[in-house]
Amino acid sequence: MIPMFQPEDIAPHLDIAALLPAAKDAFRALSDGSAQAPVYVLHPNDMADIHVKSACLPDCPIFTVKMAGWSQVLVDRGEPASSGLIVVFDSITCKPIAILQDNHLISDYRTAAAGALVADLLAPRDVASALVVGTGMQARLQVEALLLSRRVPQIAVWGRDPQKTAQLRDDLAKIHPRTEFSLAGDLADAVPLADVILTATAAKDPVVDASWLRPGQHITSVGSDDATKCEIDPQAMAQAKVFVDARTSGEAFGSPRRAIAQGIIATSDLTEIGTCLTQGIAREPEDITLACLSGLGIQDLTAVRHLWQKLQPAAQLDLTGKAVT
């Protein structure tokens, strides 16, 4: 029988800082061309999507296929909106060796690790204030990711639902007592005040207008994971240095896709994060940097490779799925 791991088996092993090396491995593999990471997004109805993301790497003993769903219906019910699982396969035999029914936990944390890496690479060294747009799990985790590399005295929280926004503010204040958390009012007023802006929404139309941005800011947009989403005004792409998981994902998903379709920027204007890791980046104080993270299957694979070393003893399997004797 193929071993199955539930969220409670996986959650104790998830840590943003610990997944940073896995994030770096993924971005480098995307940029050097060694990763195979196809993605397909299905929309079973107009209030839901499911992402099918797979990946393999040369000489990696496992490969992964993920199915991750999100539903507005669940949001409206007050239930967790995300679900899904990752199947782990043996790279030699292609046989499945484990099912990780993580309900999107691994995706959440590997995305947060990507955000932490991006913040370290691109955010100003001195951050006086930040703004998080969104109230879900990823909004919470991206704040934690930012605080791994930057001391931020003040962070404002904005969301469409006042109750959820206040709850996130209160939760973050308890976890991060060294930072003062407040509720943002009008976004048009809040955005120019922030040195770093974190957007984590499912918005299909921009929530951040290009005219609100000012020189020196950094924006991380994690709501860039399918062709229908567009958190950031495409016109902002003309003002900013734009960074993506891969140029192919930038062409296909999120605000970069819309900006390219409108002729505001070209694909060649996108810089892959893996390129920054291998070649470095010079950030001028007046630069606006914008990282649009779509999330690709290779990030799931490198995260699972890291976690599998911790999970496999419970299943009495080695890294390739063979029984441990």
Automatic annotation (TrEMBL):
Q: Which InterPro entries match?
A: NAD(P)-bd_dom_sf, ODC_Mu_crystall, ODC_N
Q: Entry's Pfam families?
A: OCD_Mu_crystall
Cellular component aspect of the GO annotation:
cytoplasm
Name under which the protein is recorded: Ornithine cyclodeaminase
